[in-house]
Amino acid sequence: MSTLTQPRAAWRDRLRAAGLRVTAGRLAALDYLDDHPHSTAAEVLEGVAPALPSLSAQSVHNIVHDLTAVGLLRRVDLPDSDAARYETRTHDNHHHVQCVVCGRIEDVDCVVGHAPCLTPSQTHGMRILEAAVTFRGICPECEARTRDAAQEG
Amino acid sequence: MSTLTQPRAAWRDRLRAAGLRVTAGRLAALDYLDDHPHSTAAEVLEGVAPALPSLSAQSVHNIVHDLTAVGLLRRVDLPDSDAARYETRTHDNHHHVQCVVCGRIEDVDCVVGHAPCLTPSQTHGMRILEAAVTFRGICPECEARTRDAAQEG
DNA sequence: AGCGCTCTTTTGAGTGACTCAAAAGATCAC
DNA sequence: GTGATCTTTTGAGTCACTCAAAAGAGCGCT
Ligand SMILES: [Mn+2]
Ligand SMILES: [Mn+2]
Ligand SMILES: [Zn+2]
Ligand SMILES: [Zn+2]
């Protein structure tokens, strides 16, 4: 029932290409994150638990760390988030919108090339490598809920 | 020796205006953060300790939390940072550059109004409130150090 | 297919930022 | 000054994450 953009065979190849061994935990984590982007380590653990009950929390931390190091995963740090999040969509430097009410997170494509994001007004002499942009807002559902609550009040 | 942009009397007024009581801990934290922007709660504690040895870590957390809630402080969450940082420069929605090597943090003014920062390509229906932009790069000092090390190697 | 080196996972313990709650203390309106 | 209320302190606890050593699995090789 899952809609995986990357079949398992592809993950196997990419793991090997990165010099990493193919393990059940790594494949399960990649599958899960491909289907559930922006998940925390704890959510990955919970998500793969039915299929891989023996996988430990420590292993999930090892896995997301190692896969991020070789570029198979990307780590996303959002404000007001206690835990780091991970996704399989890497190397496109896309950004994120987050609803301040319900926490819903969505991707935002970066205007690549002529990037306003990559041209700060003052760089303090720093050579800029990348820009992490997090938009904070209110999603339609939460806005509607807020409106309804206001009308009753 | 400190170069405070806000004299103590001004902080007293702003605390009162916000409905908060004027306490030694709050004034000390505001003074320190005015002089040392982007400090963590632990750094604030260490910084005010000489003048206020009795102030507890818990109090510093209470203080930065409460002052952020009323807008006297702004909380800054940066990637790869274990602790939240705080600053007195609020309500101008400025951004930050961070050196990935030494961690040095500098302010970057936002191009207010015609903000590329505030106009994501896809909003997923969300009403955008603000954009948090963190530029990651290498500062001149770290770049020079890296170059020197490469020449020796 | 089986062996064995090496990498990975598990197990166990620990750190550090932050939170919650109740008691002691300070602020400020009166 | 006095008292109600807000703050700070004290004490304990949570949670993400880290470190390290032992157990286990992957895979190159024969
Ligand atoms: Mn994403
Ligand atoms: Mn700043
Ligand atoms: Zn929402
Ligand atoms: Zn630097």
UniProtKB/TrEMBL annotation, chains A, B:
It holds the Pfam family FUR. GO terms for cellular component: cytoplasm. Belongs to the Fur family. CDD domains: Fur_like (cd07153). PANTHER family: TRANSCRIPTIONAL REGULATOR FURA, ZINC UPTAKE REGULATION PROTEIN. This is Transcriptional repressor. It is found in: Cytoplasm. Binds 1 zinc ion per subunit. GO terms for biological process: negative regulation of DNA-templated transcription; regulation of secondary metabolite biosynthetic process. GO terms for molecular function: DNA-binding transcription factor activity; transcription cis-regulatory region binding; zinc ion binding. It comes from Pseudoclavibacter caeni. Its main location: cytoplasm.
